[in-house]
Amino acid sequence: MAGLLNALSAIAVVTVGLTVTSLDRRVALVLGATGSIVGSFLAWVVAPAAWSGAVPWVASLLGTAALVAGWSAVRLYDGVFAPPPEPADDTGTVATIGR
Questions:
Q1: Is it the case that residue 54 has pLDDT exceeding 70?
Q2: Residue 70: left if φ>0, alpha if ψ -120 to 50, beta else—which one?
Q3: Which of 28, 32, 41, 79 could link 22 by a cystine bridge, Cβ 3.0 to 4.6 Å?
Q4: What is the pTM of this model?
């Protein structure tokens, strides 16, 4: 039970820390909570016997950092493969000049 409380407190502290220091608090809340939970869960699945002390804290930090890095990469390359915008059509200007 102490290990679970340690993990939950690690998740809460990492999430609150990211949310308080972020400019977009809603996104930071989602990224912090999701990254911490997934990181802690994966660490528990990989090494359940080592689940004490600093392992949940490190797993929460690494999970959140990995999720924030992935989110940043997606946001960075969001419009790279989008087609270029259509050129401005100036036929309306020609029609009004001709009147």
A1: yes
A2: alpha
A3: 28
A4: 0.75
Judged against a pLDDT cut of 70, whether residue 92 lies above it is answered with no
Q: How sure is the predictor about 97, in pLDDT bands with cuts at 50, 70 and 90? A: low
Selection from 1, 10, 2 nearest residue 43 by Cα: 10
Residue type at 18? L
CA gap 81, 83 in Å, rounded:
6
Rounded Cα gap, residues 53 and 29, in angstroms: 25
Per DSSP, 99 falls in state -
Higher pLDDT: 60 or 99? It is: 60
Using the Cα atoms of residue 49, residue 55, residue 61 and residue 66 in order, give the sign of their dihedral. negative
- Tokens 């939950």 locate to 8
